[in-house]
Description:
Layout: E1 6-17, E2 27-37, H1 43-57, E3 66-71, E4 76-85, E5 88-96, E6 102-108, H2 117-123, E7 131-136, H3 150-155, H4 167-170, H5 180-190, H6 193-205, H7 208-212, E8 213-215, E9 220-222, E10 227-232, E11 240-245, E12 253-254, E13 260-261, H8 275-290, H9 299-304, H10 313-325, H11 337-340, H12 356-359, E14 366-374, H13 384-392, E15 410-415, H14 420-435, E16 439-445, E17 448-450, H15 457-460, E18 471-477, E19 514-520, H16 530-535, E20 558-560, H17 565-574, H18 593-606, H19 611-618, H20 627-642, H21 655-675, H22 680-688, H23 690-693
Parallel strand pairs: 2-8
Antiparallel strand pairs: 1-2, 3-4, 4-5, 5-6, 6-7, 9-10, 10-11, 12-13, 14-15, 14-19, 15-20, 16-17, 16-18, 18-19
Helix pairs in contact: 18-19, 18-21, 19-20, 20-21
The chain binds a DNA duplex through residues 318, 322, 325-326, 328, 331, 333, 335, 585-589, 609-612, 627-629, 631-632, 635.
Main location: nucleus
Protein name: Telomere repeat-binding protein 5
Domain HTH myb-type: 583-642
Amino acid sequence: MVLQKRLDYGFSGYEVPAVPRATRSARKRVPFRKIVEGNQISAFDLLATVAGKLLDKENDTASNYTWSAEDQSAAETNTVKEERGDGNQSLKLEFCNQDGAKAEFFASELVSQTSDSNYSSKESPSLRNGALVATSDCLERADAQKLMNGKIKKEMGGLSCHVEAGPSVCGTSGDGIKPVSENKLLMDEELDRTDKALIGEVADKCSLEDALVLDVKPPAIVSSDGSFKARSYGDHNPLVSFTAKWDDVNVVSRDDDEKSSGCTHPSPLREPFRSTPRIVDRRIRKILASKYRKVAPRSKNVTNSNFDENLKSGYCNRSAYKRLRSGRNYPFKKRKFFYCRSESNSDGGTSSEGISDSSGNNNNRSISILYSKMHGVTGESSSPADQHKSFTSSNSHVKLRIKSFRVPELFIEIPESATVGSLKRTVMEAVTTILGDGLCVGLLLQGKKVRDDNKTLLQTGISCDNQMDTLGFSLEPNPSHTSPSLCPGGSPLKLPRDTPLPLSRYPANPGLVNQVTCDPSPEPRKPNLGNFIESNNGCASSPTDMFDKSTHESKALLAVPALSMETLAVVQAHKKSKQSEVAQRRIRRPFSITEVEGLVQAVEKLGTGRWRDVKLRAFDKAKHRTYVDLKDKWKTLLHTARISPQQRRGEPVPQELLERVLNAHTYWSQQQAKQQPLPESCLLYHNSTMIASSRSDVD
DNA sequence: CTTAGGG
DNA sequence: CCCTAAG
C-alpha cells in the first residue's frame, strides 16, 4: 500500500490583493491554514484556499467577475472564477497541470449568515463555515486530488486529522511550534484594525478545522454508486477510509451555462457527478489554449506538480529495504530521510522524543539551530507603490502577494567547519523537500547577505558562541528558474518587505521571498571545541594532512525539516536506535594535490583492487576519506588523465601525477588480466597491442 | 565489510 | 559523492 505523504502548511494573514473590482478594498488579509497530500505546494492550492477565504469575506453585491492567476512554479494554470447563483456565491478555481490531471476547486461561500442558517445549522453544522470543495475528472487516478468540505471531516469525527492547529498537537515538544492561540496573538499584532476585525470575524465563525484548517487533498475515489470515498490520514490512524454519500458532499454543481446551482446547499445534488468532467474538459481546453503556454514549461517542476510523484515511494521502499539489509552507518547515508519521513505514517505512533533525539550523542562540534521563526524579507522587491500597482494594473487577474510566511521547526545541525554553501544547501534541501524546486536559499547574517559560499561558517562568524538570532535565511526564486511571465497581465510577483506571521506554516509559491530567522536552539548544543584541534592533529605524516586544516571530520549535515508534528514524531519513532540516521550528503571535499599524490603512490604499490589497503596505507587518518572515496577518486583521476587538459575542471592535477595514474592503471590492469584467464579474443588483442608499451616504469 | 560500477 | 549488487 502506498502511503501518502502529507504536508501541512498554511498561511495566515498574508495579503491578498484586491479582487479587481472597485468595491473591494485594496487588500485583504486572509488567514488560513490547510493541509495537502503530497509534498508539492502550488500556487494553485494557495489560490484555492485564499480565494475561498477571500470570498468568505466578500459578501457584497453580486456581480460576476473572473480572476485568475498562474502558478509560476508548477506551470499550472489557475483560473479563479467566481460564480454566483441563488444569492450564494461560490468561487471556482480551475487548474490543470501538465500530466493532464484536471481538477476544479470550488470555494463555496458557506459562511452562514443569518439568512441561510435555516438549513445549515442542523444537518451540517460545518457548512456554516467556509469550505473548499474540489472535484476532479481524474477520478480513476489513485492520486486524484479531492477536496472535501468540512462536513465530511466533521462527520467522521476523529478523522479530522489535520486539526493540528490545536496547541495539544503543536506544542508537544516545546520546540518552537507555537500554539495557535499564540499565533493568533501574533497575527493580531500584525494587522491593522480593519483586518483585525476581519480575522476576528472569521475566527469566530469558523472552527479551526473548518475554517482555519482547510483540509484539501485527501485522495479520494468516487465509486460508481455515487458515494464519495476518501482516505483520511489521521494522526494516529494512518489510513482510514470512510465514505460519504454524495448527498452529503457539498459539491458545486454546474450546468453548461456555468451557473452555479445550489453550490451552497447541502441538499442532494441534482446533477450527476459525471457531468462535471465534461465541463471541466472544456474549460481546461480553453485555459490551455489561452494561458498554459505562457507559463514557461520547466519540466522538472512541472513533473513535480504530480502529487504522487512526490510520494517517492520508491525511495522509501528502498530505504526501508536498506535498513533491513544492513545496519551500517558508514558512510552516512541518510538522504532518503527526507523522502521517507512523512510516509512513515504507518508507523502510527507519535512520539514525544522530538528532535532532541536527533542531535543527541553527537560529539562533533556542531551548531544546533532550531529555526523556529521564518519570516519573509526581501531586498529586491520593488517599492510598495510598485507593488500595489502590480496588483491593480491588470483586471481579471489576481496577483497574490504573500507577505510572509514561516517554516517552523527547521532543525539543522551542522558542523562549524561546514561551509556556508553547505549550510545553504542543507537548508535548501530541507525546504525544497517541502516546496519542490524553484527556490534557492540565501543566507543573512546580521542583516547582511552572505554571498561567499565557500567560506566556512566559522570564518563567516557563525559559530556556537554566536547569537543565532542574527542569522537569517531567505527563500529566493531560483535564478535559473525565473520565468518573468507570471500572469497574463505581465506583472510579476512583487514581494514586499514583510512582517512575521503566526499561523503560517509552509510557503507555497516559488515566486516568493521569505526569510528565516532562527532562534537559539533549545537543543543542547555541543560546544566543546576541544576536539576540534585534536581531530586534525597527529597526521602530519600522511599526505592528507596538508589538506583541510580547517575542517575537522564532520558528521554529515543534519537537517530536519518539520513537516508537521506527526511526521516529525514518526521520524523519531523510526530511528529510535539510530540517532544519526538523519543526515545529509557529505560535504564535498575536493582532493588536494597532496592527497592525490598519496593516493597515486599507494595505488602504484598496492594496485587498483585493494582500496581498503590503500585507505589504510595512505589515508588512515583521514577519516573522511573512505575506501570508496578513494576508489572514486581514482576513477575520476583516470578519467581526468584521459581527457584533454582543456576539459578538466577544478584544481589542476599535475600532469606528472596523471601519467602515473595512467601507468599504474594499465600496469595493474595487466596484472589482473594475467591472473584471470581471458577469453581468447581478448588475449589476442591484448598481446598484440597496448600492453607492452606502457608497463615499464611502475614500481 | 569490500569491491566494482553505475548514477 | 551516493547507491547497490555481489562476494
